[in-house]
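Take a specimen:
=====
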Amino acid sequence: MEEITSLATQLKRDPSSIDNFLYEAVFEEDLKRKNSRLFELLTVLNNSGYRGASIYPLYKRLSQGFLGFTVPAFNIRGMTYDVARRLFRVAKRLGVGAFIFEIAKSEMGYTKQRPLEYAVVILASAFREGFNGPIFLQGDHFQLNRKAYNANPSNEKESLKKLIQEAILSQFYNIDLDASTLVDLEATDLMDQQRHNYEVTAELAEFVRSIEPKDVIVNLGGEIGEIGGKNSTPEELRAFMKGFREAFKGDVPISKISIQTGTTHGGVVLADGSIAEVALDFEVLKTLSRLAREEFGLAGAVQHGASTLPEEAFYKFPESECVEVHLATAFQNFLYDHPSLPSDFRQEIYTFLKENFKGEWNPQWSESQFLYKVRKKGFGAFKREWWDLPPEVKESILSDMEGLFERIFRALNVVNTQDIVRDCL
């Protein structure tokens, strides 16, 4: 308690001192001391008005009628503190209230960011930028491994429940439950195809309701088609929701549904390292979003794997009544490909990846394709080096990134949504 009081006093006197406190906490090697330091920072930030929030009230409002904007969910894999600060800076300037920071189960591993660390870094970013709107932290693709589930369903579900508990304790009050990996497309009956998906999603949703704080309704999503597979259909959505409704015994169900419309996570990289043009079916997105809202009272459909689309395509998401779009790889690409990133640093990461992940190199891939596929793993292995890049390098990259954030916010029509969000909450 004495340490928390001292930290609060220091931050009140000099808000910029959080930079050093955060750095020391993030890179503390002793896990027990690290979590203690992060918890101290979380407590001080909470006491200063910065805490995780649930977007559920807004999505409840959206279930009654689309409001004309699509909520962006940002996965920040590298330089998280610096990137998040710029995102908050742009959001503050444009009056954006409807946006989410998220991290997937898989990303936590290769970026070395557990929920508590990610939450504290994002909240500290908001504190430094003086952002005074609600901050939505989301667990993205809290997913079951199909092979592990088939070998031992109980163990795989318990493992995911532990992650859910860890995330909620870290104020992730928005979670996407992804059991789409369990869909059995070989089954001829749609209910049988979706059975494991809706039964496990219902079980996990009930677990969330049993542990969520009394004053919070965690916003939950489900998923009917694994991203990168065949496009989802109205019949699949109806089968999943029918089964989920029968299986779910809680009071508040899911509020959104992720679907497949033609994209692939990270995009499809060609032999020369460029990204193939994506044929995303916006009509499927619009049809299923309306169906989800009108027949099942959901806020709408969610689009994953969209960040590598051409920027002009982003205007189509609000037109398609998409409730939420997940964005990740484009920001990773922005960092790696920016001309101001020192070439020797980039090459150091690439050399490391070629030496340590050569087992993932498909013989049919070019070197460019391999590096594109695995360079996301350079964020965790070089986390400190990314954080310690020279200020002038970071400024050059991040000032350009601000422009990208602004274009996304404008295309998704979330500018001046702070009042709408506050009214709902």
